[in-house]
Amino acid sequence: LTLRSLCCTLNEQPLTPECMLICTLSQELVIDDHRLNCLPGTKEEGLVIRDLVKGAVPKVSTIHLTDGEIHTDDIMEKLRSVEWLHLSCHGFQDPSHPMDSFLALSADKPLKLRDISHIHMPKADFAFLSACQTATGASSLPDESMHLAAGLHVAGFRSLVATMWTVGDNA
Length: 171
What we know:
25% helix; three-stranded antiparallel β-sheet; alpha/beta
C-alpha cells in the first residue's frame, strides 16, 4: 500500500449497488436443540437501514421473516443476485463442528456454513451481519478462519462486517 494508491482511491467514485437484500428475523426459534430468543429490535433495524439507502440503491428488498413466510432455500436463491446484504437475525458458532455454524433466517431450517460456502454470488460486494458470533471461528482450528463471515467471503462477498461475540438485541 503506497501513498499514491491511497490518493487514487480518494478520487474514485464509490460503488453504488443495484440490488440490496435486508433480512430480519425477530421471532423465537428452536433450531438443532438451541432455543433462540425473540429479537424484537430487528424489524426496526431493517426499516432504518432501508430508509438510509432509499434513493441510493435502485432495488432494495426488505424481508421480515415470520413463521412459514419464507424458507431458507428462498433466501439462498435471493443471495445469488444480491450485491449488498444486511442480515439481522441469530447467529450461532458451533465450536465442535464449525461447518454446522448457522444463521437463523427461517423456521424451516438454518442457513449453515456448509451451505453458504457453496452458494455462487457473482455480484456480491458488501455484507453486514448483525448477528451473534458471525466471525468467532473455532477454537479447535486457531489458524483457520472457519466462521460464517468467512463462508460469505468464500461465496463472493468482498467486504463484511461481522461479530466475534454475542450481541444484544438493542446494541
